[in-house]
Specification:
about 45% helix; seven-stranded parallel sheet; tRNA (cytidine(32)-2'-O)-methyltransferase activity (chains A, B); cytoplasm (chains A, B); S-adenosyl-L-methionine (chains A, B); alpha/beta; tRNA (cytidine(32)/uridine(32)-2'-O)-methyltransferase activity (chains A, B); Alpha/beta knot; 10 helices; Helicase, Ruva Protein, domain 3; 2 domains; homodimer; elongated
Chain lengths: ~240, ~240
């Protein structure tokens, strides 16, 4: 899906924005960048802001017109911050990503971003099948060009299902404690809390309920139970020595 | 919800990024920006890149430490591009937005972004209850700072616009502990664990990190922190008596 989607920038004024767009694309695994009549390209500013996404810049295609840029695409989505007087079929970035998730498997698609200050012209929108609008503060609705590309690319990436492994951070995570281990832990806790004089075992019901709520919520691992019981043991030791 | 969420930037090197962050925030109706030890601020570069979000910059709070920045927050989310060896409860931007949609109605929340090149340090992550990671190309995973803020703010904005239902299980739930309360709790714990002979304060680092992980995961309420500190006090009392 992502390899069938190109990002098209129309008459970008600031080369720095082109570089930042390349970085945003590469972050989200998009590769095809097309520049329609950029003011200045290639340019050191673009390379600097690309921060390592030079490959996107060096393979970028430069065209004279939007028509040429989207010629091979079946689905062309134009982006706009403004409400247009002509009503266009509108998509949010998420709707667009969901649409392309199925459509961009067999078809080439383009998402077109206009000029920094004036967006796309009506004759350019005529080439677009859909209008994409990023939900935002209606009193301050102009996103930076690269920021807009970032949001749209992010939605495409999430929809593509190439999500990072959610479990990465959990690697090496220990086994969760069993119910039996938890019960033994709570028994130990009652004993220790009584030993340190925090409560009488007979009157422990409501306190223990509150403590159970905390530790059950924490979903303890076996090793963590061992750690906590080590602490309980030490607190008891002092009592017994005391 | 959005008015209870602050964006915290830690030791930002490039003032231009601060401006771009302010713009991204204003686009998405976020207002509270906190800067922890920025290299240069205020700065003309920041104002230029803010492109009209000057109000966010002029009301931005500058702090010396992350601890100070998040002291009044009950929910602190750290962002990271790297996989950490210690497993932290991880959220995607969408999961984070869904969480804050309910939690940030009654509680202040902070989303913390680290340095451009090195992110957040481990002692800063210790202050965070969750780790947020933006799904992206695993071979090119470092987003520009403002681009990362844009993605997260966008998800928050989208979530804020939807109808929410407070889940039944959360009704009548007490207030979550603030970061300052949690830190005081951990300080007290170090003291108590040393008093009962469980560990030396100097050697407490890795044990405390494991304990923090447990209690951060449990998302303690203020009253629960009081309960646990009551237990700590009693365990100390016995030592001192002993």
């Amino acid at each position: 899906m992502l390899s069938n989607i190109k990002i098209v920038l129309v008459e970008t004024s600031h080369p720095g924005n082109i570089g930042a767009v390349a970085r945003a694309m590469k972050n989200m695994n998009l590769k095809d960048l097309v520049l329609v009549a950029p003011k200045q390209f290639p340019c050191a500013d673009a390379t600097a802001r690309a921060s390592g996404a030079d490959d996107i810049l060096s393979s970028a295609l430069v065209c004279d017109s939007l028509q040429e840029a989207v010629a091979d695409c079946s689905i062309v989505v134009g982006t706009s911050a403004r409400c247009r007087t002509i009503s266009w079929p509108e998509l949010t970035p998420r709707e667009c990503a969901n649409l392309l998730k199925t459509e961009a498997i067999d078809h080439k698609a383009a998402i077109v971003f206009g000029r920094e200050h004036s967006g796309l012209k009506n004759h350019e929108l005529d080439l677009c099948r859909y209008l994409l609008r990023i939900p935002c503060n209606k009193d301050f609705s102009s996103l930076n060009l690269a920021a807009a590309v970032q949001v749209v690319s992010y939605e495409l990436f999430v929809a593509s299902g190439q999500d990072y492994e959610v479990t990465v951070g959990d690697k090496g995570k220990g086994l969760l404690a069993t119910a039996a281990q938890m019960e033994a832990f709570y028994e130990h806790m009652i004993e220790a809390l009584s030993d340190i004089g925090f409560m009488h075992p007979d009157k422990s019901k409501s306190v223990m309920r509150r403590l159970r709520r905390i530790y059950n919520r924490a979903r303890l691992e076996s090793k963590e139970v061992d750690l906590l019981r080590g602490i309980l043991r030490m607190s008891q030791g002092n009592k017994k020595k005391g």
